[in-house]
Amino acid sequence: MSWDVLLIRTKTNREAMDEIKSENIILFSQAEIAREIGKIATELGAVCDCQDLSWQNLDSDSWSIEFNVGKNAETESVMLHIRGSEPKEVLTLLPVDLNAWLIDCSTGEFIRPGEPTSFERWRAYRDQILGRNEM
């Protein structure tokens, strides 16, 4: 079970959610995502596995992120499947470095630096479903 976040980039990165049009989306390349994951891994002391450019991974001791980039060399968006703790540093670095936005799939809202996400609500739901009493 993962907390899912969508990475997307538009020409202005200023549109409201319901105003994003496909003609304004700037594509990501598989290689671009791999380079960024490698950079973040180095900065945070995490481990990256980008051998399969369609499904890349970034792991630390407290969280794991799978980047579903897709089989095509370029893509309109990248889905992040996050497990473990909330990777706040990654959620801060990724959109800045790639000039992109992150969308919280649990709420359909943009993730904004310094503002709370739905991660804690998702984790409580996950723990309830799995029968855990962790917080």
Could you walk me through the main structural features you see in this protein, from its secondary elements to its overall organization?
With 135 residues, this protein is α+β, with helices and mostly antiparallel strands. It has one domain (3-130): TATA-Binding Protein, CATH 3.30.310. 28% of the residues lie in helices and 28% in strands. It is built from three helices and nine strands. The chain has helices at 30-44, 88-98, 119-130, and strands at residues 3-8, 28-29, 47-49, 55-59, 63-68, 74-75, 77-84, 101-104, 109-110. Helix 1 (30-44) packs across helix 2 (88-98). It comes from [Clostridium] asparagiforme DSM 15981. This is DUF2314 domain-containing protein.
Short structural description:
With 135 residues, this protein is an alpha+beta fold. It contains 3 helices and 9 strands.
Keyword list:
single chain, 135 residues, alpha+beta, TATA-Binding Protein, 7-stranded antiparallel beta sheet, 3 helices, 9 strands, 28% strand, globular, DUF2314 domain-containing protein
Strand line-up of the largest beta sheet? 3-4-5-7-1-8-9
How would you characterize the largest beta sheet?
7 strands, antiparallel
Going by CATH, the architecture would be 2-Layer Sandwich
Order of helices and strands: EEHEEEEEHEEH
- For the termini, the CA-CA separation is 16 Å
CATH class identity: Alpha Beta
Shape: globular
Which percent bin holds the helix content?
Answer: 25-40%
- Residue stretches low in confidence (pLDDT < 50, at least 5 long) are none
CATH topology: TATA-Binding Protein
H/I helix tally:
3
Query: What does the radius of gyration come to?
Result: 15 Å
**Which percent range describes the beta-strand content?**
25-35%
Strand elements, count: 9
Q: Tell me the number of structural domains.
A: 1
Main structural class: alpha+beta
Mean pLDDT rating: 93
Protein name: DUF2314 domain-containing protein
